[in-house]
Amino acid sequence: MQKHPSPYPSVLILGALSDVALAMAELYASRGYRLLLAARQSERLERIVSDLRLRFNAEVKALEFDARQYDSHQEFVDSLPELPDVAIVAFGYLGDQEKALHHFPEALRIIESNYTGAVSILNRLYLRMAERGHGTLAAIASVAGLRGRMSNFHYGSAKAGLIAYLSGLRNLAYHHGVHVITLIPGFMRTRMIAHMKTPGFLTLSPSKAAHLMTRAIQKRRNVAYIGPLWWLIMCIIRTIPESIFKKLKL
């Protein structure tokens, strides 16, 4: 089993420019973790890396990563400065439901950003972690993946696929020393849903969501609902008969 070069584990965050990913990066940096922040390169990412280094004296590196450029994923994994202890898939794209219905490239972008890209990079990271004999993989899914709704079924179906994929991977990975966590948030106060009106008591700030996610990862949960009420809410929603549910215009 590979020894760590320092007493602090390393964390790779893929899609590091999302609001929740940034909040998670700050939490990990404040706790002394070594960080690899992966996203499409930008001046913003470089500023974030510099800020985390300055504020927390943290070891942080920026990496070039594009979830939809599948041909680059193996090279990305092979070129990592170190294979992380924890890898978190935090990228995603809500998209425009109406546009996706009439314009397939939008539907494809939603599917690739929320499912295909995640499968591509997680497969590769899993194989390396299984070869090493330990590691944790976490991915942010969504309650939207637990039942199809007319308002976001392209996004929801991609997240449903991700949830099923993570469940299967978790069963395989268990036998090879790798733990897989499915993070299922509800509403989060991020740029992704800035245009939507959501119930305040059900909408978490990025910092609160990040706290709950990092805690779930630390506790090695299998499936973690991010927000105490979402498990109950989704249990109720999933039991509504289809004959009634289709009339609710959700």
The total of helices stands at 9
Q: How many domains?
A: 1
- The chain-level structural class is alpha/beta
Report the average pLDDT across residues. Answer: 90
Provide the low-confidence segments as ranges: 1-5
Query: Largest sheet at a glance?
Result: 7 strands, parallel
Order of helices and strands: EHEHEHEHHEHEEEHEHH
Q: Please give the radius of gyration in angstroms.
A: 18 Å
Any idea what the shape is? globular
| CATH first level | Alpha Beta
Write down the oligomeric state.
single chain
Quantity of strands, as a count: 9
How much beta, percentage-wise? 15-25%
CATH homologous superfamily placement: NAD(P)-binding Rossmann-like Domain
Question: Mind sketching the topology for me?
Answer:
Blueprint: E1 10-14, H1 19-30, E2 34-39, H2 43-56, E3 60-64, H3 73-78, E4 86-89, H4 97-102, H5 104-132, E5 135-140, H6 153-173, E6 178-185, E7 187-188, E8 203-204, H7 206-218, E9 223-226, H8 230-239, H9 242-245
Helix pairs in contact: 1-2, 1-7, 5-6
What attributes characterize this protein structure?
250 residues, alpha/beta, Rossmann fold, 7-stranded parallel sheet, two-stranded parallel sheet, 17% strand, globular
